[in-house]
Design goal:
Layout (H helix, E strand, L loop, with lengths): L49 H13 L18 H18 L5 E7 L2 H19 L6 E5 L11 H4 L2 H11 L5 E7 L6 H11 L5 E6 L19 H12 L5 E3 L15 H23 L5 H19 L2 H16 L4 E5 L1 H12 L1 H5 L6 E5 L3 H4 L17 H8 L8 E5 L7
Parallel strand pairs: 1-2, 1-3, 3-4, 4-5, 6-7, 6-8
Length: 420
Protein backbone atom coordinates (compact mmCIF):
# COMPACT_ATOMS: atom_id res chain seq x y z
CA UNK A 1 0.00 0.00 0.00
CA UNK A 2 1.29 3.46 -0.89
CA UNK A 3 2.01 5.74 2.07
CA UNK A 4 -0.82 8.01 3.14
CA UNK A 5 -0.11 11.57 4.18
CA UNK A 6 -0.72 13.00 7.63
CA UNK A 7 -0.56 16.44 9.16
CA UNK A 8 1.85 16.96 12.10
CA UNK A 9 -0.05 18.20 15.16
CA UNK A 10 2.81 19.94 16.96
CA UNK A 11 6.06 21.68 16.17
CA UNK A 12 9.07 20.37 18.12
CA UNK A 13 10.29 23.90 18.81
CA UNK A 14 9.66 27.41 17.58
CA UNK A 15 12.40 28.97 15.48
CA UNK A 16 12.87 32.70 15.36
CA UNK A 17 12.67 34.27 11.92
CA UNK A 18 15.51 36.80 11.41
CA UNK A 19 14.63 40.40 10.61
CA UNK A 20 13.49 40.85 7.05
CA UNK A 21 15.78 42.79 4.73
CA UNK A 22 19.12 42.12 6.39
CA UNK A 23 20.50 40.92 3.05
CA UNK A 24 19.84 44.41 1.69
CA UNK A 25 22.30 46.07 4.05
CA UNK A 26 25.31 47.41 2.16
CA UNK A 27 27.89 45.22 3.90
CA UNK A 28 25.97 41.93 3.91
CA UNK A 29 28.08 39.31 2.08
CA UNK A 30 29.28 42.16 -0.13
CA UNK A 31 31.48 39.94 -2.32
CA UNK A 32 28.46 37.95 -3.54
CA UNK A 33 25.68 38.91 -5.97
CA UNK A 34 22.13 38.86 -4.59
CA UNK A 35 21.32 35.49 -6.16
CA UNK A 36 24.30 33.84 -4.45
CA UNK A 37 23.97 35.36 -0.98
CA UNK A 38 22.63 33.32 1.92
CA UNK A 39 19.18 34.29 3.14
CA UNK A 40 18.96 35.20 6.85
CA UNK A 41 15.41 33.85 6.95
CA UNK A 42 16.44 30.29 6.11
CA UNK A 43 19.82 30.22 7.87
CA UNK A 44 18.67 27.37 10.14
CA UNK A 45 16.45 25.56 7.66
CA UNK A 46 18.59 22.43 8.03
CA UNK A 47 17.42 22.20 11.67
CA UNK A 48 13.75 22.73 10.86
CA UNK A 49 10.96 20.17 10.82
CA UNK A 50 8.53 20.08 7.86
CA UNK A 51 6.08 22.61 9.32
CA UNK A 52 8.90 25.03 10.03
CA UNK A 53 10.46 24.48 6.58
CA UNK A 54 7.21 25.48 4.90
CA UNK A 55 6.91 28.55 7.13
CA UNK A 56 10.47 29.65 6.35
CA UNK A 57 9.95 29.20 2.61
CA UNK A 58 6.71 31.17 2.84
CA UNK A 59 8.60 34.11 4.38
CA UNK A 60 11.40 33.75 1.86
CA UNK A 61 9.03 33.68 -1.12
CA UNK A 62 7.19 36.73 0.23
CA UNK A 63 10.35 38.75 -0.49
CA UNK A 64 9.52 38.51 -4.20
CA UNK A 65 6.68 40.97 -3.63
CA UNK A 66 8.37 43.36 -1.20
CA UNK A 67 8.58 46.97 -2.29
CA UNK A 68 11.60 49.27 -2.21
CA UNK A 69 12.81 50.46 1.18
CA UNK A 70 14.59 53.81 1.14
CA UNK A 71 16.34 53.00 4.44
CA UNK A 72 18.22 50.08 2.84
CA UNK A 73 20.27 49.54 -0.31
CA UNK A 74 17.99 50.79 -3.07
CA UNK A 75 17.57 47.66 -5.18
CA UNK A 76 14.90 47.72 -7.87
CA UNK A 77 12.01 45.47 -6.84
CA UNK A 78 9.22 43.74 -8.72
CA UNK A 79 6.77 46.61 -8.13
CA UNK A 80 9.30 49.41 -8.75
CA UNK A 81 8.16 52.05 -11.25
CA UNK A 82 11.21 51.47 -13.46
CA UNK A 83 10.52 47.72 -13.63
CA UNK A 84 6.87 48.30 -14.51
CA UNK A 85 7.86 50.78 -17.22
CA UNK A 86 10.29 48.29 -18.77
CA UNK A 87 7.61 45.61 -18.64
CA UNK A 88 5.24 47.97 -20.46
CA UNK A 89 7.87 48.64 -23.13
CA UNK A 90 8.44 44.90 -23.67
CA UNK A 91 4.69 44.25 -23.70
CA UNK A 92 4.30 46.68 -26.62
CA UNK A 93 7.03 44.80 -28.50
CA UNK A 94 5.12 41.56 -27.89
CA UNK A 95 1.93 43.14 -29.25
CA UNK A 96 3.71 44.07 -32.47
CA UNK A 97 4.94 40.50 -32.95
CA UNK A 98 1.48 39.04 -32.29
CA UNK A 99 0.08 41.17 -35.10
CA UNK A 100 2.56 39.78 -37.65
CA UNK A 101 3.24 36.11 -36.83
CA UNK A 102 4.24 35.26 -40.40
CA UNK A 103 7.34 37.45 -40.41
CA UNK A 104 7.98 37.83 -36.67
CA UNK A 105 8.78 35.63 -33.70
CA UNK A 106 9.09 35.75 -29.90
CA UNK A 107 11.94 33.54 -28.68
CA UNK A 108 12.41 32.58 -25.05
CA UNK A 109 15.79 31.07 -24.18
CA UNK A 110 17.54 29.76 -21.09
CA UNK A 111 19.73 27.10 -19.51
CA UNK A 112 18.59 24.52 -16.97
CA UNK A 113 15.57 25.77 -15.03
CA UNK A 114 15.40 28.94 -17.13
CA UNK A 115 15.37 26.89 -20.34
CA UNK A 116 12.63 24.65 -19.00
CA UNK A 117 10.56 27.72 -18.16
CA UNK A 118 11.24 29.07 -21.65
CA UNK A 119 9.89 25.79 -23.03
CA UNK A 120 6.85 25.85 -20.74
CA UNK A 121 5.92 29.45 -21.57
CA UNK A 122 6.49 29.19 -25.32
CA UNK A 123 4.48 25.99 -25.73
CA UNK A 124 1.70 27.23 -23.41
CA UNK A 125 1.21 30.49 -25.29
CA UNK A 126 1.30 28.72 -28.65
CA UNK A 127 -1.47 26.44 -27.38
CA UNK A 128 -3.40 29.54 -26.35
CA UNK A 129 -3.03 30.96 -29.86
CA UNK A 130 -4.01 27.64 -31.43
CA UNK A 131 -7.20 27.64 -29.36
CA UNK A 132 -7.98 31.04 -30.87
CA UNK A 133 -7.29 29.68 -34.39
CA UNK A 134 -4.19 31.83 -34.72
CA UNK A 135 -0.69 30.95 -35.90
CA UNK A 136 2.02 30.26 -33.32
CA UNK A 137 4.20 33.25 -32.43
CA UNK A 138 6.56 31.69 -29.88
CA UNK A 139 9.64 29.48 -29.97
CA UNK A 140 11.93 28.29 -27.20
CA UNK A 141 15.61 27.49 -26.93
CA UNK A 142 17.09 25.39 -24.14
CA UNK A 143 20.83 24.80 -23.90
CA UNK A 144 21.47 21.18 -24.83
CA UNK A 145 18.27 20.76 -26.86
CA UNK A 146 15.07 18.99 -25.84
CA UNK A 147 16.86 16.33 -23.82
CA UNK A 148 17.79 19.16 -21.41
CA UNK A 149 14.09 19.49 -20.52
CA UNK A 150 14.48 16.15 -18.73
CA UNK A 151 18.20 15.85 -17.94
CA UNK A 152 21.05 18.21 -17.08
CA UNK A 153 23.22 19.33 -20.03
CA UNK A 154 25.69 21.65 -18.33
CA UNK A 155 28.42 21.57 -21.01
CA UNK A 156 26.14 23.34 -23.49
CA UNK A 157 25.28 26.05 -20.96
CA UNK A 158 28.91 27.23 -20.88
CA UNK A 159 29.26 27.76 -24.64
CA UNK A 160 28.21 31.14 -26.11
CA UNK A 161 28.84 29.90 -29.67
CA UNK A 162 26.28 27.10 -29.27
CA UNK A 163 23.78 29.69 -28.08
CA UNK A 164 24.26 31.76 -31.23
CA UNK A 165 23.98 28.71 -33.50
CA UNK A 166 20.72 27.66 -31.82
CA UNK A 167 19.31 31.18 -32.16
CA UNK A 168 20.12 31.36 -35.86
CA UNK A 169 18.37 28.03 -36.50
CA UNK A 170 15.20 28.92 -34.67
CA UNK A 171 14.69 32.39 -36.18
CA UNK A 172 15.72 31.62 -39.76
CA UNK A 173 13.63 33.60 -42.24
CA UNK A 174 12.07 35.98 -39.68
CA UNK A 175 12.27 39.74 -40.21
CA UNK A 176 11.59 40.79 -36.62
CA UNK A 177 12.51 38.82 -33.49
CA UNK A 178 11.87 39.65 -29.85
CA UNK A 179 14.50 37.63 -28.01
CA UNK A 180 14.03 37.03 -24.27
CA UNK A 181 17.13 35.60 -22.66
CA UNK A 182 16.71 34.30 -19.10
CA UNK A 183 19.70 34.09 -16.76
CA UNK A 184 18.72 34.48 -13.10
CA UNK A 185 22.25 35.28 -11.98
CA UNK A 186 23.22 37.25 -15.10
CA UNK A 187 25.88 34.65 -15.67
CA UNK A 188 25.06 32.03 -18.36
CA UNK A 189 27.56 32.10 -21.30
CA UNK A 190 24.96 30.47 -23.60
CA UNK A 191 22.65 33.45 -23.07
CA UNK A 192 25.47 36.00 -23.20
CA UNK A 193 26.38 34.81 -26.70
CA UNK A 194 22.78 35.13 -27.88
CA UNK A 195 22.32 38.61 -26.40
CA UNK A 196 25.56 39.82 -27.98
CA UNK A 197 24.46 38.46 -31.37
CA UNK A 198 21.15 40.33 -31.02
CA UNK A 199 22.95 43.56 -30.09
CA UNK A 200 25.01 43.27 -33.26
CA UNK A 201 21.87 42.76 -35.38
CA UNK A 202 19.39 45.27 -34.01
CA UNK A 203 17.74 45.66 -37.42
CA UNK A 204 16.12 42.25 -36.78
CA UNK A 205 16.42 41.58 -33.04
CA UNK A 206 15.15 43.29 -29.91
CA UNK A 207 16.95 41.62 -26.99
CA UNK A 208 15.46 41.37 -23.50
CA UNK A 209 17.47 40.12 -20.53
CA UNK A 210 15.61 38.69 -17.52
CA UNK A 211 17.53 38.10 -14.29
CA UNK A 212 17.68 39.04 -10.63
CA UNK A 213 20.99 40.76 -9.99
CA UNK A 214 21.94 44.38 -10.65
CA UNK A 215 24.09 44.70 -13.76
CA UNK A 216 27.14 45.57 -11.64
CA UNK A 217 26.78 42.14 -10.02
CA UNK A 218 26.68 40.23 -13.32
CA UNK A 219 29.45 37.65 -13.79
CA UNK A 220 32.60 39.46 -14.88
CA UNK A 221 34.99 36.61 -15.71
CA UNK A 222 36.02 36.25 -19.35
CA UNK A 223 34.06 33.37 -20.84
CA UNK A 224 36.32 30.55 -22.03
CA UNK A 225 36.77 30.59 -25.80
CA UNK A 226 35.12 34.01 -26.11
CA UNK A 227 36.09 37.67 -25.87
CA UNK A 228 33.53 39.10 -23.47
CA UNK A 229 32.13 38.74 -19.96
CA UNK A 230 28.42 38.59 -19.19
CA UNK A 231 28.72 41.93 -17.42
CA UNK A 232 30.14 43.58 -20.53
CA UNK A 233 27.18 42.31 -22.57
CA UNK A 234 24.73 43.53 -19.93
CA UNK A 235 26.42 46.95 -19.77
CA UNK A 236 26.11 47.27 -23.54
CA UNK A 237 22.41 46.40 -23.20
CA UNK A 238 22.03 49.18 -20.62
CA UNK A 239 23.40 51.65 -23.13
CA UNK A 240 21.10 50.45 -25.92
CA UNK A 241 18.12 50.45 -23.53
CA UNK A 242 18.29 54.25 -23.52
CA UNK A 243 17.00 54.12 -27.10
CA UNK A 244 14.48 51.35 -26.24
CA UNK A 245 16.05 48.86 -28.63
CA UNK A 246 17.06 46.52 -25.79
CA UNK A 247 15.64 45.92 -22.32
CA UNK A 248 16.78 44.55 -18.99
CA UNK A 249 14.28 43.23 -16.44
CA UNK A 250 16.28 42.58 -13.29
CA UNK A 251 14.41 43.30 -10.05
CA UNK A 252 15.99 41.98 -6.87
CA UNK A 253 13.83 39.31 -5.24
CA UNK A 254 16.28 38.42 -2.48
CA UNK A 255 18.63 35.49 -1.89
CA UNK A 256 17.27 31.98 -2.38
CA UNK A 257 15.96 29.87 0.48
CA UNK A 258 18.75 27.45 -0.36
CA UNK A 259 21.79 29.56 -1.25
CA UNK A 260 22.36 29.85 -5.00
CA UNK A 261 19.44 27.59 -5.96
CA UNK A 262 17.87 29.96 -8.48
CA UNK A 263 15.30 27.35 -9.52
CA UNK A 264 13.38 28.56 -6.45
CA UNK A 265 12.57 32.29 -6.22
CA UNK A 266 14.37 33.01 -9.47
CA UNK A 267 12.18 30.50 -11.27
CA UNK A 268 9.01 31.85 -9.66
CA UNK A 269 9.88 35.47 -10.43
CA UNK A 270 10.74 34.58 -14.04
CA UNK A 271 7.32 32.99 -14.48
CA UNK A 272 5.54 35.90 -12.77
CA UNK A 273 7.23 38.58 -14.89
CA UNK A 274 6.97 36.86 -18.25
CA UNK A 275 3.46 35.48 -17.85
CA UNK A 276 2.23 38.87 -16.64
CA UNK A 277 3.61 40.84 -19.57
CA UNK A 278 2.72 38.19 -22.16
CA UNK A 279 -0.84 37.83 -20.88
CA UNK A 280 -1.22 41.61 -20.79
CA UNK A 281 -0.02 41.79 -24.40
CA UNK A 282 -2.45 39.10 -25.53
CA UNK A 283 -5.35 40.82 -23.78
CA UNK A 284 -4.44 44.21 -25.23
CA UNK A 285 -4.20 42.73 -28.74
CA UNK A 286 -7.57 40.99 -28.50
CA UNK A 287 -9.30 44.06 -27.01
CA UNK A 288 -7.42 46.57 -29.20
CA UNK A 289 -6.50 48.60 -26.11
CA UNK A 290 -3.17 49.89 -24.84
CA UNK A 291 -1.49 48.18 -21.90
CA UNK A 292 -1.24 50.30 -18.76
CA UNK A 293 0.94 49.98 -15.67
CA UNK A 294 -2.22 49.12 -13.75
CA UNK A 295 -2.89 46.18 -16.09
CA UNK A 296 0.55 44.74 -15.38
CA UNK A 297 0.31 45.46 -11.68
CA UNK A 298 -3.05 43.67 -11.51
CA UNK A 299 -1.57 40.58 -13.16
CA UNK A 300 1.35 40.50 -10.72
CA UNK A 301 -0.89 41.13 -7.72
CA UNK A 302 -2.75 37.98 -8.76
CA UNK A 303 0.45 36.00 -8.24
CA UNK A 304 0.86 37.60 -4.82
CA UNK A 305 -2.61 36.31 -3.95
CA UNK A 306 -1.59 32.87 -5.22
CA UNK A 307 1.37 32.95 -2.83
CA UNK A 308 -0.93 33.69 0.11
CA UNK A 309 -3.53 31.10 -0.88
CA UNK A 310 -0.91 28.41 -1.46
CA UNK A 311 0.79 28.89 1.88
CA UNK A 312 -2.56 29.05 3.67
CA UNK A 313 -2.43 25.27 3.13
CA UNK A 314 0.89 25.14 4.97
CA UNK A 315 0.02 22.17 7.16
CA UNK A 316 -0.96 20.03 4.18
CA UNK A 317 2.16 21.08 2.28
CA UNK A 318 4.23 20.16 5.34
CA UNK A 319 2.55 16.77 5.41
CA UNK A 320 3.63 16.21 1.80
CA UNK A 321 7.19 17.28 2.64
CA UNK A 322 7.21 14.85 5.56
CA UNK A 323 5.84 12.05 3.42
CA UNK A 324 8.30 12.60 0.59
CA UNK A 325 11.21 12.78 3.01
CA UNK A 326 10.13 9.54 4.65
CA UNK A 327 10.00 7.81 1.27
CA UNK A 328 13.53 8.90 0.37
CA UNK A 329 14.86 7.95 3.82
CA UNK A 330 13.49 4.44 3.29
CA UNK A 331 15.06 4.23 -0.19
CA UNK A 332 11.67 4.71 -1.77
CA UNK A 333 10.75 6.87 -4.77
CA UNK A 334 8.60 9.91 -5.50
CA UNK A 335 6.41 9.98 -8.61
CA UNK A 336 4.48 12.95 -10.01
CA UNK A 337 1.48 11.97 -12.14
CA UNK A 338 0.20 15.07 -13.92
CA UNK A 339 -2.04 16.35 -16.66
CA UNK A 340 -1.50 19.19 -19.14
CA UNK A 341 0.62 22.11 -17.87
CA UNK A 342 0.74 20.70 -14.35
CA UNK A 343 2.16 17.49 -15.77
CA UNK A 344 4.94 19.52 -17.40
CA UNK A 345 5.61 21.24 -14.05
CA UNK A 346 5.93 17.86 -12.35
CA UNK A 347 8.40 16.68 -14.99
CA UNK A 348 10.42 19.88 -14.64
CA UNK A 349 10.61 19.56 -10.85
CA UNK A 350 11.66 15.91 -11.07
CA UNK A 351 14.32 16.62 -13.70
CA UNK A 352 15.98 19.22 -11.49
CA UNK A 353 16.45 16.93 -8.50
CA UNK A 354 19.43 15.21 -10.16
CA UNK A 355 21.69 18.29 -10.64
CA UNK A 356 20.38 20.05 -7.50
CA UNK A 357 20.49 17.23 -4.97
CA UNK A 358 22.64 14.59 -6.67
CA UNK A 359 19.80 12.08 -6.81
CA UNK A 360 19.43 9.26 -9.31
CA UNK A 361 16.90 9.97 -12.05
CA UNK A 362 14.72 7.15 -10.69
CA UNK A 363 14.42 8.72 -7.20
CA UNK A 364 12.04 11.47 -8.35
CA UNK A 365 10.22 11.15 -11.66
CA UNK A 366 7.43 12.95 -13.46
CA UNK A 367 4.84 11.60 -15.90
CA UNK A 368 2.32 13.41 -18.12
CA UNK A 369 -0.92 12.08 -19.54
CA UNK A 370 -0.16 11.78 -23.27
CA UNK A 371 3.62 11.88 -23.03
CA UNK A 372 5.43 13.85 -25.71
CA UNK A 373 2.20 14.57 -27.57
CA UNK A 374 1.09 16.61 -24.55
CA UNK A 375 4.56 18.12 -24.06
CA UNK A 376 4.57 19.50 -27.63
CA UNK A 377 8.37 19.77 -27.61
CA UNK A 378 10.14 20.57 -30.86
CA UNK A 379 12.09 17.30 -31.21
CA UNK A 380 9.12 15.04 -30.53
CA UNK A 381 9.30 11.63 -28.85
CA UNK A 382 12.60 11.10 -27.00
CA UNK A 383 11.71 7.73 -25.48
CA UNK A 384 14.37 5.90 -27.49
CA UNK A 385 17.10 7.86 -25.67
CA UNK A 386 16.69 5.82 -22.48
CA UNK A 387 14.42 5.06 -19.51
CA UNK A 388 14.80 8.58 -18.07
CA UNK A 389 12.94 9.83 -21.16
CA UNK A 390 9.87 7.62 -20.59
CA UNK A 391 7.31 10.14 -19.35
CA UNK A 392 3.77 9.10 -20.35
CA UNK A 393 1.14 7.72 -17.99
CA UNK A 394 1.29 4.57 -20.08
CA UNK A 395 5.04 4.32 -19.34
CA UNK A 396 4.28 4.66 -15.65
CA UNK A 397 1.57 2.00 -15.71
CA UNK A 398 3.71 -0.43 -17.69
CA UNK A 399 7.21 0.07 -16.32
CA UNK A 400 6.89 1.62 -12.85
CA UNK A 401 3.57 0.82 -11.19
CA UNK A 402 4.20 -2.95 -10.92
CA UNK A 403 7.20 -2.21 -8.67
CA UNK A 404 5.65 0.55 -6.53
CA UNK A 405 5.89 -0.28 -2.81
CA UNK A 406 4.61 1.10 0.48
CA UNK A 407 7.83 3.14 0.76
CA UNK A 408 7.01 5.14 -2.38
CA UNK A 409 4.98 8.35 -2.65
CA UNK A 410 2.79 9.07 -5.68
CA UNK A 411 1.59 12.66 -6.12
CA UNK A 412 -1.28 13.33 -8.52
CA UNK A 413 -1.28 16.86 -10.00
CA UNK A 414 -4.45 18.11 -11.68
CA UNK A 415 -7.29 20.62 -11.46
CA UNK A 416 -10.89 19.62 -10.83
CA UNK A 417 -12.16 21.40 -13.93
CA UNK A 418 -9.54 19.77 -16.15
CA UNK A 419 -7.82 23.03 -17.09
CA UNK A 420 -4.29 23.93 -16.00
Amino acid sequence: MINTMFVPQKQKHIMETPDMGKWELAGYEAALPVTEKSNPITREIDKADPVQIVHLLKECDAEIFQEEDDTLVNYKRLYSASVLQTMMDVTKKVEAILKDPEHSLIILSGCGTSGRLAFLLATSFNKLLKGLHKNPSYAYIIAGGDKAILTSQEASEDNPHLGVEALKRVCAGKKKVLFIGISCGLSAPFIAGQLDFCLNNLDVFTPVLVGFNPVNMARNEIIEGWHLTFRQVAEKMEEVQETRRAFILNPAVGPEGISGSSRMKGGSATKIILESLLLAAHKATSNNKEVTAKNLLDWMKTYEKVHKITYSQGKMIAAMVKQAGTSLEKMGRIYYIGWQTLGVMGIIDASECVPTFGTDFSDVRGFINKGYKEMANREGDLTSRGPEFEISHEDFMKNVLPDVTENDTVVFIFTLDGWC
